[in-house]
Input
Amino acid sequence: MDQPADLRWFAVLRDILGGAHLWQPRDIPPGVDDALSRLGLSATIWLIDYEQIALRAMPRPGRDTPGPLPMDASPAGRAYLRVESLAGDGRWWVPIVDGTERLGVLELAGAGGETGFVERAELVAGLIGHLVATVTRRGGDIERVRRSRPMSTASELLWQLLPPLTASEPRAVVSAILQPCYEVGGDGFDYALDGDMMHLLVLDAAGRGLRAGLACAVALAAIRAVRRAGGGLSEQARAADAELAEQFPDTRFATAVLAELDLATGRVRYVNAGHPAPLVIRAGRVVGELTGGRRVPLGLPDEDDELGEVRLEHGDRLLLYTDGVTEARTPDGARFGPVRLAELTEQHAAAGRPAPETLRRLAHAVLEHQAGPPSDDATLMLVEWSAAAALATVPEADEEGDPS
Amino acid sequence: MTDAGLMVTAGESAEPVAVLVVAGEIDRDSVAVLAVAGREALGPRHDRLVLDLTGVTFCDSAGLSALLDLRKRAVARGGSVHLAGTRTEVLTVLQVTNLERLFPRHATVADAVTAALSGA
Output
């Protein structure tokens, strides 16, 4: 172990952590840059925009802010997509993750490339990821960098409710994506890692815009509250029924899938409240659909209490979605459909590709399929019950970093 | 009543069953037409509603909400809502959302009225 190098990098971490107590969002780039200048490095922080099409630089005082970098054909884009550090254009590009949620890329210019450099740079980038995720809540500057347009009220409400887009633990990864990011209203999702249990939720409230967004928010919060208090699937669904009926004088309903995956055994138990059936994908083929546990949508009373159950094998993928995906239409009127969804999932879930990247490509394929702007929210949630898939979401230096 | 995409007219009622003939697309832009007509039809002398959906080619979640509201209103008065001539497109939406069990369906308006009269 190279103790002098470790001490130098420790000083960088100490500067960042020590200063961050008093940082506004806009203080992160100069604070990080100053800390890294101890090592002769200059740092630029790139953040992914909401639509996951381009990386946008956080401004640093006294310097011009570079223009956005597209995903393909740039080393920054590749580092982001693959969650892998790499060298290109004479500098280093290190993925910034909050846990395993992909937030952007750290660009490092100056020296670097010596043994252990990438591993230490990834530590700093991981810290920056956590900081971005927390400090962004203190003010609007990080949001302004990541938004290419203003958000609707419904979108602002929803994004505040959602958990990070990706989370991993040693046995599995869960990742989600939804669009249109700036005008979403009605769709929502949630998940929770509670020991051996991974809880999953996808919601689609009837209607559109803030009207549907409010119903989605009520259902999501009701389910989350009961779940956190220890209530099971049926109780969570009934809580959503009660709150939706009580809050709104007219009928508001939301189709939903509520599920629990036991990470030790692969058993999935679930409720399907009028929602398109999630797909079980094994070795690139759809081997099952979650068609059991059926009841009416949330918000409508139902005595049916039956839970569906299925058993996953290691390596299986579970894909949940809303009908905004499968009902998307081409200019000639053809539906996207679940068959095409399964085919594209197989196509894009290349071995070793991080789950959020599979989803990003899937979501863009759905958009390309459509004629004109989306007429409905489209949400995708992918669960991979696989240790290898979980590791693929974590930046990991190999010992021989590429110095060129 | 008419909206660009939806037309709702009164059919032949048989107290206490009101009949509405619906044609076009029920979506969030046109749904108010159905909602208003349905509320008016479920007046003091009618607590059961038959909707002739032979001419309905599309129904989205906003349309389902409106149907559910009408059902809630009818059921609160001891009545019901029956559907006649439901096309595949609409039936599919009802099936996927698991709502088909809430709305008895019949091939013809006459069948629907008979069923509604008998208190089904």
Observations:
- The two ends of chain A are 23 Å apart (CA to CA).
- Chain A touches chain B at residues 204, 206-208, 250-253, 255, 272-276, 294-297, 300, 323 (CB under 8 Å).
- Residues 209-228 of chain A form the longest helix (20 residues).
